[in-house]
Amino acid sequence: MDIQRVGDVRLGWGESLVWDDRTDRLYFVDCAAQTLHWLEGGSGDLQTLRLPSMAAGIVPTDDGALLGVLDDGLHRIDPDAGATELVAAYPERLGGRCNDACADPAGNVITGKLNLGPDEGSSWWWSATDGWRLIDDDISNTNGPAVLSVDGATTLVIGDTSKDYFSYPYEPSTGAVGERTVFADTSGLDGLPDGATVDADDGFWCALVGGGQLARFTTDGLDRTVALPVANPTDVAFGGPDLDRLYVVSIAGEADSLDGALLVVDGLGARGRPEPRCSLGARS
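Request: output the structure for the sequence above.
Response:
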């Protein structure tokens, strides 16, 4: 296994890593600077788009754009045109703004409340045709949502930064969930639940912020950990032509450290899956 820094990228608060397999672009954001960044092929010159507010979640769309979780709602972002457009304001019951997000196999979005400390929060399902539906009203800070196929059944995983990663039997077409259980117990590990991704074998890879490490979980529990040269990793994503490189972003720290750098981990022996895309419905 080999861990290297990618270029000279240094972020204040890196988040929302996404590999777009259609364009071979690696997208990520700097929450501290309210910017979207991307690298063609996962390397080369850093491209930057200033956003109208902080994006804490990025999801590829079926029309080739991105859906961004911004201050006032979900926005369609066209990186090449440098344009953003509000698609859906947050539901009033949410009581604030959302954080991390993902798409499910039916093209809907899973996201939820942003709280920087333990507080009341909730997780939500959004559809371009059916709008918002509540998933769980007891998630303080939604992080690392993902949809897995577990023993032939569809399972939704949602992390709560103040607790663990939880799982639910899930119906993508309606957003309906079953009884919540703990999917990944992080209480015995250094760090707290943050961003996550899924490999081709439905292994769940997550960044443990404050713990300087990644962890992979399966339905059998903790499978492995990977120590990192950064204190606060925040998100992970498989990328590269074969989806066999694992990228990591983090929060800035001491000037002489790697904190805030973009890292890539090679030689894990794991491959990712193409990132699910959300549908924005018919557009005029």
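The domain at 2-266 is CATH 2.120.10.30 (Neuraminidase).
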